[in-house]
């Protein structure tokens, strides 16, 4: 396992051997998926906010540009902070150890956002204790009544127990959010596992330091109603659908209809549309709306560093072709 606990690991990860910047990477999911869930939970755009473990993800700039102009974005690696400052000079990036942010006073922030720093901490050699230290530091930094929003690869029953970390006084709600990377053309059916179907989304409200009436008000709001939360029943249906998809034969398309990169892009546009229809049926959502959301998450051809057969850009479907097909014309896309 990588040595996530060492600063040198992250400095090396964020640049190549020649010192060139690594490409920005949006871990798990971006603002385009999360904004509809997060925005109702963080009603004040002028509130003070800390984003911990920001890395080189565009998420920081996105949340700032959504109106959270008093946000500070912190990472352990001075290498990546330098890169992010150059990419997004209008955003406040700072170097800091999220286990010991002594530059900030107690009860400094209204909101904290953690997108997968918890996952990094849990991969430490002493992961559970390190993650408890992270929660204690985030608890210290939050104002009474402040809110921590957290997105994790770990399951709900692995995240929720940190609500009871010694020295913390939180009340918590968790839910599952569908992993829209399932619909990325780079993700094959065989790569889909039950553990990758969703992310855990958690909200921790700090009740320490609140007066009795405010404490009662905050506690009474939980469990919160979270936008786009997946019910266990819906998740079971999604699993069944994807299990059936994984059992299907690979798609067969005519090479004669795919002799240009744009044609291959069209193939994956059709794949995405098929998946969106399946999921729309399960979630009983409007197909066009869901398709727009899925398309917003996929990689564009100009961003792809892989074969053109893993990208998409057109909206027409190759399945409308009536061209004759022979066995020599087939290619397999899975």
UniProtKB/TrEMBL annotation:
GO molecular function: S-adenosylmethionine-dependent methyltransferase activity
Ranges of Low complexity composition bias in the record: 300-327
Region span, Disordered: 296-334
Gene Ontology terms: biological process: methylation
Protein name: Methyltransferase type 11 domain-containing protein
InterPro entries according to UniProt: Lys/N-term_MeTrsfase_sf, Methyltransf_11, SAM-dependent_MTases_sf
Family: Belongs to the methyltransferase superfamily.
UniProt keyword annotations, A-Z: Methyltransferase, Transferase
Ranges for domain Methyltransferase type: 50-149
Pfam families: Methyltransf_11
Coiled-coil ranges per UniProt: none
